[in-house]
Give the backbone structure.
Amino acid sequence: MKNFKKTLRDKPAMRWMMLVLVSTLMFATYWFQDFFSGLKGLMESEMGFTSEEFGRMIGLTTIANIFGMIIVGGIMLDKWGIRIAGIVFGGLATLGASITALAAYGFFGDEHSTQLTMMIIGRIMFGSGLEVVCVVATRTIVKWFKGYEFALAMAINMGFGRLGSAMGIALSIDIGGGSVPPAVAFAATLIGLALIVFLIYTVFDIKLDRQTNVGAELAEDEEFKFNDLIKLITNRSFLFIALLCVSFYAAVFPFIQYAPDLMVNKFGFTYDLPQGVDYFSLFGSVSLGNAAIFIGLFIFGIAFSMVPAQMKTFGKKLISVLVIFVFFVLFIGSLWGTLSVWLTNGPKTASLIPMGTILFTPIFGSYIDKKGKAASVMILGALLLIFAHISLSLFNSVILGYLGLLSLGIAFSLVPAAMWPSVAKIVKESRLGTAYATMFTIQNIGLLAFFWGIGKVLDMVNPSVIEAMDKARTMLESQGLSTSEVAEQIGLMKVAGEIPPYNYFWPIFMLVILGVISIFLALQLRLADAKQGYGLEKPFGNIED
C-alpha cells in the first residue's frame, strides 16, 4: 500500500460539502432555465406572448452555444481552471438573468416588441454562461470525486439542478403572485446569490490545488490543440454518446417548457391553486411550505441512495431501505391533502418530471458506481422516453398522463446518471472541459430546434386559438383594462370555453421520433464500447487516478 498525505478531497465530509457549494450554482441556473414553463399561460394573457414567441425566447437562449460558445468556454476551463471559468461564466449568467428581469419590468421600454427583444438578449447572455457553468460543475466533481463516489456525486449534482427546475416550474407562478416580472426578478436574484456561494467554494479549491501541486502539473501539461477536438469527434464512442445527448435532451428539455400548458389545455388542469384548501405551510407561508416539500423529496432521494450504501451487510442494507421507505410513506401521507390538489394543477403536476429525478437520479448513480451497465441503462431510458411521449400525445387518459410524466422523470434520471460519468471514462481528464463543452454545443442545436419548433407547430395547428386570443385581448384593452386585469379576464374566458384549448397532439408526438433515435444511438454506443474497451458496462466506483 502506498503512503500518501491526505488532502481535502480524501475527507468525505469535505468532498460532500464542496459538492453542495458547487451544486448551489446548478440549482439556481436550472431554476432560471426552466421557471418560465410555469408562466407560459400568464405570459400569453398578461404580456401578449404567442406560443411561437415564447418558444423563440426559450430557444434562442442556446443560440450563442450553437456557434461554439460552450467549446470556447470548455477550452477556457481547461486553460484557466475551475475558479476563473466559474466566476466569469457564472457572472455572465447572472448579468443575462438581470437583463431579462429588467426587460420583464419594462425597464428598456414597455412596448411588446422591445420587451421580447430585450428578454431574448438577456436569455442569450444567460444561456452563454449557463452551459459552461454546467461544465464547470461537472469538471469540479471529477476533481473531487474521481476514485470515490463518482457517479453518485454526479447524480446528486444533477439532482440539485433538477430540484431547481422542479421548484422553478411549480413555484414561480406562486412567487409572482399572478404576475410575470416578480417571478423573473426572484429567479435572477437566486443566480446572484449562488455566485456568491461559488466564491466561497474557490477558497477551498485553492487550498486543494496547493496540497496536490496541481498548478505545476497544469503548467507541464500540453497546450490545447485544435487536433484534440478532431480526435474527440472522430472517436466512435464519444460521437455516439454526444449524439445521444442531442436526441435525448431535445425530447426532454423543450417538453418541460410546454408541459404545464399541455396539462392545462389537454386535461383541463388549472394554472392557479384553488382557494379554500388547507395547504401545507411553513412559518405561515404556503410558498415556503411548497418549497419544503420539494426539498424533503430531494433529501429522501439522497437517503435512499446513500444510507444503504454505508451498511456493511445485506440485512442492514435491507432494514435501512425499509426504515427510509416507511418514513417516506408517512411524509407523503401527511402531505396528501396538498399533494392531491397539486395533481390537478398544471405547473405542479408537470414538476413530476424533474421531481422524478430528485428521487431516482442519486439511486441510479449509486447503482452505476457499484454495478456499471451504463450503456444498457441509457437504452432503458430511451424506451421510457418513447412510452412517455406516446402516453401524452396519443391518449386523453389522465392516468396515462401521470404515468407518462413519471416515466419521463425516471428516464431523465437514468440517462444522465449513466451518460455524464461515462464521458470521464472515454476522455482523459485534462480534456474533459472541452469534451463536455463539445457535447453541450451539439446538444444545443437540438434544443434550439425543438424549443422554438414546438411553439411554432403549436401555433400552426391551432389558428383558431390564436385568433380568439387576439380578439379577446383587443376587446379588453379597448375597455381600458390594465395588463393584470386583461390577464385575469382571459383566464376566465379560457375556463368558460370562450377561448378554445390548444391541441398538443402533433407538437408532442414528433418527440417520439427522438426516442427511437435515442435507442439506436445507445445500442451503437454499447457496440462501440465493446470494441474500444472503455468499460462503460463495468462499475464506476474505485476508479484509479
Summary: The mean pLDDT is 88. The chain has two domains: 11-272+345-462+502-532, 273-344. The CA atoms of residues 37 and 257 lie 4 Å apart.
